[in-house]
Each structure stands twice: as C-alpha cells, then as structure tokens.
Amino acid sequence: MNPLIRLPLEGTTNTRDLGGYPTRDGHATAWQVFLRSDDLHSITDKDKELLHEYGLTTVLDLRSTIELKDRPNPYTKNPDVRYYHVSLHEAAGQTPPSDLPYDALKHLYKIILEQSKPQIKEAVEILARSRGVTLFHCAAGKDRTGILAALILGLVNVPNRDIVSNYEVSYTNLRRNAYFKANAQHHNAMMYSVNDFMEETLVYLREHYGTIEAYLEGIGVSSEALSALKRKFTV
Fold first, then answer.
1. Does residue 99 carry a pLDDT above 80?
2. Strand stretches in the chain, DSSP E
3. What pLDDT, on the 0 to 100 scale, is given for residue 235?
4. Torsion angle of C-alpha atoms 109, 111, 114, 119, degrees rounded to 10
C-alpha cells in the first residue's frame, strides 16, 4: 500500500504517518514505520482493514488507566497486533478546570518530560524494538502523542521547524472530531496545538539537556535502542 500523510480512517481524524521529513544530515524519516494518532476506540472494521493493509503490527497506547477503561482500545485482544499500554500522564481523563490559562499546555509538556521519564523510556524502547508499522496514540493524538513524536523526530535530526509543523496540524484535524468539539467550549485552553507550545518545549529540552538524544540517554534509554530507532526511522 502506498504511504499516506493522513490515513483516511472513519473512526479517527488525526492518524498520520511520520515519514517524509528531511533530516539535517541529508536523510529523511521513513514511511510506514511510525503512525501518530488520536484515540482508536471508534475505529470501524473498514479502518482495521486499512491499518492491516498499511502494515500495522504494534499499537502503543499512551492514555491513562481511566481513559482506557472509559474508551477501551480495540487492539487489546487482537492476536495479530502487539498491544502495549504505557501511561504518560496518569492524571489525564479527569475533568480539568474550565479556567485554565491559554498556555497551560506548555507547562504540562514540561511536567510530562520531567515526571514521566520511566514511562517515556519504556515507550521509546518499545518503538525501537517494534517491527513493521507501529501506531502510538493518546486521546486527541496531540499532547502526549505530540511529545513522543517530537522526541523521535528530534532524535533523528529533523529540524525544529518541521517538528513544530507536525505538531500544529493536530488542531486542524481535531476540529472535525465529535468528542473534541463537544469538549472544546469547556476546556478551551487544552484544545489547541499552537506553535509556541511545542517551540518552547524544544527550547526547554535544549536548555536543560543539550539535545534530545542526551535527554533520552539521561532517562536510561540504551545506546542500542537509540541506534536501532535511528536505523529503522531514517532512509
């Protein structure tokens, strides 16, 4: 099946391939290796068939235990797809205050990077050892998914401008999501994927860790796993 930027699934609006981004050292990210996505709870049989044809072998669910219970993942008991659950923010799924500041997400991203290091390590190592197409997702495919996408794109030297661009697309896609639209009026600050939010996160990583690779090494991801991820994700 030919690679696609956004997969036209009926049950999601933000499922995208991370292939095709140029790297600073003259390579590009490989197609049909990693997909980022919003919640898979509502995917249809037609969606499952498309994902099968696309090469899906592994699903990494980044949602909290509460979210998983409320909206079960259809791949938890699928014998043909490996399923992993690694919660990057266990408080997710609880109703946030309606008066959050506009830039609340910038602070949330830093909290996740600092307080979920064991979970990020586990998630990155799963991505490194998986075969075929691996899809990772949270609820909207924007925040926790966005952090993990930024880390693996940065690891293979995709320029920040492209990492930020990849992040920004989420809001455009999610405006068409019924669940997203139903909650937007109540928690407006949590709905956006503004470039500043990701740009400041990348600045934070640079100022505190030097490079994304140094951050990942510092949280315990092995050099073997990092090398394997680089090899599989670049062409």
1. no
2. 16-17, 34-37, 56-61, 82-85, 133-137
3. 97
4. -80
Confidence (pLDDT) at 24: 97
DSSP code for 95: P
Collapsed DSSP state (helix, strand, coil) of residue 37: strand
167-195: string of b/e by CB count within 10 Å (b at 16+)?
A: bbbbbebbeebebbeebbeeeebbbbbbe
Question: How much is the pLDDT for 231?
Answer: 98
Looking only at the bridges linking them, the beta strands covering 82-85 and 56-61 are parallel
- Name the amino acid, one letter, at 134: T
The residues near 4 (Cβ < 8 Å, ≥ 6 apart) are 17, 54
DSSP 188: G
What digits encode the pLDDT tens for the residues 9-39? 999 999 999 999 999 999 999 999 999 999 9
CB 30 within 8 A of CB 233: yes
Predicted local distance difference test score (pLDDT) of residue 194: 85
Cβ count within 10 A of residue 24: 9
